[in-house]
From TrEMBL:
Entry annotated with the keyword Protease: no
SPOR domain mapped to chain residues: 216-296
Gene Ontology terms for molecular function: peptidoglycan binding
Pfam family, one: TPR_16
Keyword vocabulary terms for this entry: Signal
Residues in the signal sequence: 1-25
SUPFAM superfamilies: TPR-like (SSF48452)
Protein name: SPOR domain-containing protein
Coiled coil region boundaries: none
InterPro entries attached to this UniProt entry: SPOR-like_dom, SPOR-like_sf, TPR-like_helical_dom_sf
C-alpha cells in the first residue's frame, strides 16, 4: 500500500500563512486581481505579474499565490516549480515556507528524492516547521520503500515536545515500529498519542491496536463498564460511539428482563486489572465518561 502523504487540508492550512514580509507588502494591483478574476484565468494573470512586476515583494507574492493555486488543483509539477521560484525571490527568513511547500508538491508527484532534499533543508533551518518537515522526510522514505529509514527519521521526535502534527507523527511512529517488530517502541508511541491527543482521529486507531494486544477474549477476569441505562437506545448509542473512538469490543450487555432490564455498556474483557484501568482512563479522555472495573461475567 502506498504511504500516506501529508493531508491536503493540513498542507493548505500552512500554505495559507503568508510570510511576514509579504503580509506587510500592499499591492493594489495584485489584490484587485485576486478579488476580481475568475479562478480559471488566475494562473496567466499571476504569471504576468511575476514576470513584469518591479516590486520584489509583489512578484514574490504573485508566484507564491500561483504555486498555492496549482497545489490546490493537484497540479503538483507546476506547484513544485512555482514554489521553487518563490523561494528564490523571498527573503532568507521566509524561504523555508516555500521550500516546505515545494517538498509537499514533490511528495504529491511521487518524487521522494527531491522531496527529501527540500524537506531536510527546512527541518535543519526552520524551528517553526521542524516537526512538519521531518514528518515529510519520513513519508518520502516510505514512498521510496525504505520504512526503516522513515522510523530512524521520526524516532528522535518521540521524546520531544510536539505540536499540531504530533498525532500524525506518533501514529506513524507506532505503525513503523510495529512493522519493524519493535513492540515496546510502538506501545510507547501509541500511549503518548492517547495521552497527548486523546480525541484525534489517530488516537482511535491506536486504541484499537492497544486493545488487541491487551485483551484476551474468553479468558479475561475483569471488565470495564462505562454506562448503565434503562433505555436500550442510549446504551447502543454509547457503544457505537466507543467503537468509533477505537474500542472495537464495546458492546451492550442486558441484565434482567422487561421493565427490570438494565443495559450495560462494556468496553471489553481484560486479563489484568491494570490493563482494564488503562482502557478506562482512555475512555474518560476520549468519550468524557466515567468507568468501573468489575468482575467479568
Amino acid at each position: 500500500m502506498a504511504p500516506r502523504i501529508v493531508r491536503l487540508a493540513f498542507a493548505l492550512a500552512l500554505l495559507a500563512i503568508q510570510p511576514a514580509t509579504l503580509a506587510r507588502a500592499a499591492s493594489s494591483r495584485l489584490d484587485a486581481l485576486l478579488a476580481g478574476t475568475q479562478s480559471d484565468s488566475l494562473p496567466a494573470a499571476l504569471r504576468r505579474i511575476e514576470a513584469t512586476s518591479r516590486d520584489q515583494a509583489e512578484g514574490a507574492r504573485a508566484v507564491l499565490v500561483l504555486a498555492e493555486l496549482h497545489y490546490a488543483r493537484g497540479e503538483f509539477h507546476d506547484a513544485a516549480a512555482a514554489f521553487g521560484r518563490a523561494a528564490a525571490r523571498l527573503a532568507p527568513a521566509d524561504k523555508p515556507l516555500a521550500r516546505y511547500a515545494q517538498g509537499l508538491a514533490f511528495l504529491g508527484l511521487g518524487e521522494p528524492t527531491q522531496a527529501r532534499a527540500a524537506l531536510e533543508e527546512v527541518a535543519r533551518t526552520s524551528a517553526a516547521l521542524r516537526e512538519d518537515a521531518w514528518l515529510g522526510v519520513a513519508q518520502a522514505w516510505e514512498l521510496a520503500g525504505r520504512p526503516e529509514r522513515a522510523l530512524e527519521t521520526l524516532e528522535p521526535l518521540l521524546g520531544t515536545p510536539l505540536g499540531e502534527t504530533g498525532a500524525t507523527i506518533l501514529e506513524r511512529l507506532g505503525a513503523l515500529a510495529e512493522r519493524a517488530d519493535r513492540q515496546d517502541e510502538a506501545r510507547r508511541a501509541r500511549e503518548r498519542l492517547l495521552r497527548d491527543y486523546p480525541r484525534s482521529i489517530e488516537a482511535a486507531s491506536a486504541r484499537g491496536h492497544l486493545a488487541a494486544a491487551a485483551q484476551r477474549p474468553g479468558v479475561g477476569t475483569v471488565a470495564v463498564v462505562i454506562g448503565q441505562f434503562i433505555d436500550p437506545a442510549r446504551a447502543r448509542s454509547l457503544a457505537s460511539e466507543a467503537k468509533r473512538a477505537g474500542f472495537p469490543d464495546a458492546q451492550v450487555v442486558t441484565r434482567g428482563q422487561g421493565l427490570a432490564a438494565i443495559h450495560v455498556v462494556r468496553l471489553g474483557i481484560y486479563s489484568k486489572p491494570a490493563e482494564a484501568r488503562s482502557a478506562g482512563d482512555q475512555a474518560v479522555r476520549a468519550l468524557g465518561v466515567s468507568y468501573q472495573v468489575v468482575k467479568a461475567e
